Every structure is written in structure tokens, then in C-alpha cells.
Amino acid sequence: MRFKSSIKNISTFTKFTASLSSLGKVAWVRLDSDQVRFTIIPEQGTQVWAVLSIDSIFESYLIQSATPNNTINLELPLAPLYRALRSAQSATSASLRLTKKDNIPLLSLTIVTNTISSGSSAGAFHAGANFDRNGFGGGDGEDIHIDLHDAGGHDRETVITQDVPVRVLNAATVEGLHEPRCREPDVHILLPSLLQIKSISERFTKLASTASSSGSSATASLVPSANTPGPRLEMAANMHGKLRLGIKTDALNISSVWTGLSNPELDPSQVEGGEEGIREHPSTRMKEKGEDGWAAVRIDGRDWGRVLSVGRLGGKVVACELTSFLD
What is the pLDDT of residue 17? Predict the structure, then answer.
């Protein structure tokens, strides 16, 4: 198998990886001739099924495999990849390829930077930072190679290669993994700024946690573990541009409401049954109920805050689908 690419949009790829790393330590990455998929399935919490179009990130993209559609499946630690990409922000070029060293598969990021040098020098060195030859999870460091090339006391070219250990997965390992199928949404709405929602969500979650802790035993720990479920927020929306985010406990009942938001029209070509399918769609029936027709879900406050980290990709609104089922 073979994978080699050059990255044209380093900033977006870095922010995307940072968002994923806040939701899980390891991702299943599926590379093929058409797209790149990142999937995170934690023991508990939010699953991530993200798709990147090749043209949105890569300038050149070469993949070869004996499997259908040249598919390559990798288990990839996200933190080392994020650190490697973050170091490439000022690079003049960056490339990503699948390679192997000492029989260990690696995803190698090579970046080239140019700086003005006052002297004439040339050299190269290798730095290995706690390289874990057994795998992933820890993300203690990447294998780093640095080459310096100085051209007559003017521009100096620095080439840095960082190796992230990966595990190649065979088709049988991932064939049982499928994106969950959800029924058609009762409401679809464009969210306000994700950074604004994140700030309010974290404030509500903190208030609920503080209230809960103050009412608990004095010996109870006030620092929840990463696996401890957080307070449940309720998010509700209707098909008339209103969104409500709140939390209700024995100690408090608070909410924030947004109005004047957009409920985008459905595309008949994307709905089963076309125009007839839209007329029978749950969101159409919900809209007919007027402003009293709300759909609502309860979500884990801490987990929701991590999901909203995708706002770092631009802070723009995204479509949100809500069902009327309260879990």
C-alpha cells in the first residue's frame, strides 16, 4: 500500500485535528480515492463521524492499495498528529505520507520552512522524543528529524519530519463499524455562534455542578473525573427560528433563548420522495404547529462542551437536528 500527499490547508487541518483530539485520544482514519474519514467511538460520550473532501485539505493526493477503492484503514493517535500539524503553521510546504521504520508503520509529516540566515552553515540532526514503539494512546512524542540547508548566508531551508506511529487495520477489523442511523429530524435550525453557545453551556454546567456539590456530603470530591457524566442540559428548538438552552435541577432553573434564527429549507433532491417527502417530513408537521411546536433533547453538559470545540474551525453557525425524544 502507498499513501502520499501534500497539504495546502494546514490551518484548517490543524483546527480540525484539535477539535477531534478534545473528543477522543485515538481515531479510526479511513483513506480512499474519494475522501478521508475520521471516526471516534469512545466507551462513552459523543461519537464522531467526520468526512473531509480531498480538495479541501490536500493539494496532491496519491493512494494505492489492494483493497477496493484503494482503501487504507489506520488507527491514529490524535494528540501527536495535532502537535505535528501545529508546528507546521509557518511552513512553506507540508506533506503527509505513510511509511515504515523498523517494521513499525508511521504517518510522516514533513514540513519545509525558509528563514533568513546571517551565516553559512549546513547540518542535520535527529531527535527522538519518548518514541513509543508499542503504539498509541500515550502520545508522549514523535520521532523527529531535522535538516538544515544554508545557501550562501541568505535563505536557510529547514526540513523537519515528524513520525507519528499508527496501526494499519485490516478490513475485517472495521467492517462491523457503521455510522448510526437516525430518523428524520423534527427540527433543523442554524445555530448562533458556536463559541457563544459553548460559553453559555459551560457556565450553566459549572453552575449546576457547583449547586450539586454544595448539596452533597462535605467529604465528596469536587473534581469530577473525565468519565463522570456531567449535568444534563436541555436544548430545544422550533421551526420558527427559536432556540432555547437551559438546565433545571433541584437548586436552579435557568435558560437562554435565541430568536430570529434560520430554519433552512430542505432540498427535495436530498429527501426521500422529493417534494412529497418534504410535505410529509417531520419538520414540516412541526412547523405547522406554530411557535409552540418544540423539539428537545437532553445532553451531557461536559460532553456537549467538548463537541462545541469544533467552533475553532471558524466559529460559524452549523445546522442542528433535534428530535422530540428526551433521553
Answer: 93
For the chain, the first-to-last Cα distance in angstroms comes to: 44
Which class for 248: exposed (0-12), middle (13-18), buried (19 or more C-beta within 10 A)?
A: middle
Name which of 25, 24, 49 is nearest 39 in CA terms: 49
Helical axes 10-21 vs 78-86, angle rounded to 10°: 150
DSSP secondary structure letter of residue 201 = H
Query: What kind and span of H or E run contains 163?
Result: strand 155-165
Is residue 293's pLDDT more than 80?
A: yes
Q: How many CB atoms lie within 10 A of CB 183?
A: 8
What count of Cα atoms within 13 Å lies in the side-chain half-sphere of residue 185?
18
The DSSP element (H or E) to which 95 belongs, if any, is: strand 93-101
CA distance 40 to 252: 34
Amino acid found at 1: M
How far is it, in rounded angstroms, from Cα 56 to Cα 12? 9
pTM recorded for the entire structure: 0.76
User: What is the mean pLDDT of the segment spanning 122-131?
Assistant: 44
The strand pairing partners of 323, in sequence order, are: none
Q: What span, in angstroms and rounded, lies between the C-alpha atoms of 86 and 326?
A: 39
Residues 164/142, Cβ–Cβ less than 8 Å:
yes
- As a whole number of angstroms, the distance between CA 106 and CA 76 comes to 10
Report the distance separating Cα 52 and Cα 82, nearest Å.
16
